[in-house]
Amino acid sequence: MTENTLIEQARRFLSALRHCQVLGLSVQDATPQGLTLRLPYSDSIIGNPETGVIHGGAITTLMDTTCGISTVCVLPEFEICPTLDLRIDYMHPAEPNKDVFGFAECYRVTPNVIFTRGYAYQDDPEQPIAHVVGAFMRMGKAVQGGIKLHSEANRGAAQ
C-alpha cells in the first residue's frame, strides 16, 4: 500500500469520528512505520483558564485516536479495532498556544490484538508531553459485515 493510500484511509477513518471533527484533529502523516495526527490549539480545549494549558482529556483523545487509527498502517484491509487498554504517562503540560502532535506505531500484530505505542509532542518529538501504550481488539472484516447486516435488519424492523 502506498503512503498516499494510507493517508487517505487514515483521513476517511478520522472523518467518521465526530468528536475528532469537533476537536479539529487532522492527519499529518501515515506510513507503514506509523501515524501522526495534529490537535490544533483552541480556547475550547483549555483545561486551566489561568494558564491556558490544554485539558488532559483532549490529549487523551488525541492519543487514543492516533493509536487506533495507526492500525490502518499495518493491516492489509480495514478492520474495526476498538480500544481494549490504553495507558498514558504525562511527562509535562503542553505549552499554551501551540498545537500538539500525536505519533503512534503498531509494534505487534496478533490474530486478536494489535499493540501500539506512541507519544504526544509539540515542537520536538524528543521532548514528549506524554507517552502512550495501547491494545486494540481485532474484530475482523467478517464481523464488520455482521454488524452492518445487524444494524440494517434493526432499521428495517423499526420501520
Automatic annotation (TrEMBL):
<dbReference type="Pfam" id="PF03061">
    <property type="entry name" value="4HBT"/>
</dbReference>
<dbReference type="InterPro" id="IPR003736">
    <property type="entry name" value="PAAI_dom"/>
</dbReference>
<protein>
    <submittedName>
        <fullName>PaaI family thioesterase</fullName>
    </submittedName>
</protein>
<dbReference type="InterPro" id="IPR029069">
    <property type="entry name" value="HotDog_dom_sf"/>
</dbReference>
<feature type="domain" description="Thioesterase">
    <location>
        <begin position="52"/>
        <end position="127"/>
    </location>
</feature>
<keyword id="KW-0378">Hydrolase</keyword>
<dbReference type="InterPro" id="IPR006683">
    <property type="entry name" value="Thioestr_dom"/>
</dbReference>
